[in-house]
Amino acid sequence: MFDSLTERLNKTLKDLRGQGRLTEDNIRDTLREVRMALLEADVALPVVKDFIEHVRSRALGEEVSTSLTPGQALIKIVREELVRLMGDDGEGLNLNTRPPAVILMAGLQGSGKTTSTGKLARWLQEREKKSVMVVSTDIYRPAAIDQLETVAEKAGAAFHPSSSDQDPADIAAGALQAARTGHKDVLIIDTAGRLHVDEGMMDEVRRLHEVAEPVETLFVVDSMTGQDAANTARAFADALPLTGVVLTKTDGDARGGAALSVRHTTGRPIKFLGTGEKDDALEPFHPDRIAQRILG
Ligand code: GDP
């Protein structure tokens, strides 16, 4: 991720590092380049505008003019504003509730929901020492239920069976009961996806949300769709109280526009990155580390 953005920003900012003085012209030219680099990375326009405005107003302020190394000071501002754009400290999962803590996974078909459900189950079991149960409410694709069973087995998580003749809300209620009885810490509910956002799909997810009362409702979205990922996430966030986003397939996304747009566009934090097809290819999202990666 961010290959070309990193290259472009480095080229632009490299010249600044040694600068003893920055003029308004220097700053304007630099910001123009940064703006182009972000647009090429497929960051949404309103996000770019807001970002550049923040950097500009800080760059023209005292922080830079009184610094002994103005070039460095400007780079520091770019770094800090990148972190702010992605949500400051980053927010991990909030599982502080009476167990089982329910995590609802929503998203379009093919976005990586089932894969991410398995990865998350494994991460919670191995890293956080939680006992996890997973369930699929995708009654439209029996193959999806089988896929989750395989994924759960590999992750060492309990699997609550379901079948295509059941009602999704009944499946969720049954799984919740089973997770309670089995003293599970966490229940992850994988849901059906469609190719596009539609009302039927939203109604179903809303019903699942009512029944399962999740502490985390995560929207899973393919980062390769760039700023569209952020727009799809916003459509979901408007319809459902999302608590965060899982950004998948970042290993195939050279540009990084989604990672930089999601927070600003949806108001929700990215919580995890999917970084490959394997079941351990999941990273908690840390804006400061990502900003570091972008600026090389
Ligand atoms: P769902 O329809 O949303 O449940 O999507 P799946 O979990 O079935 O994933 C769709 C495809 O994306 C599968 O081929 C996955 O292996 C692939 N996939 C999911 N997450 C990632 C990721 O982070 N990186 C890569 N490279 N592939 C992924």
TrEMBL record:
The keyword Nucleotide-binding applies. Keywords: Coiled coil, Cytoplasm, GTP-binding, Hydrolase, Nucleotide-binding, Ribonucleoprotein, RNA-binding, Signal recognition particle. GTP binds at residues 107-114, 190-194, 248-251. The keyword Manganese does not apply. One of its GO terms (molecular function) is GTPase activity. One of its GO terms (cellular component) is signal recognition particle. GO terms for biological process: SRP-dependent cotranslational protein targeting to membrane. It is found in: Cytoplasm. Signal peptide: none annotated. Residues 269-282 form the SRP54-type proteins GTP-binding domain. Its EC number is 3.6.5.4. It comes from the Bacteria. It is an enzyme of class 3 (hydrolase). Part of the signal recognition particle protein translocation system, which is composed of SRP and FtsY. SRP is a ribonucleoprotein composed of Ffh and a 4.5S RNA molecule. Composed of three domains: the N-terminal N domain, which is responsible for interactions with the ribosome, the central G domain, which binds GTP, and the C-terminal M domain, which binds the RNA and the signal sequence of the RNC. Belongs to the GTP-binding SRP family. SRP54 subfamily. This is Signal recognition particle protein. The chain holds residues 1 to 296 of 450 of the full protein.
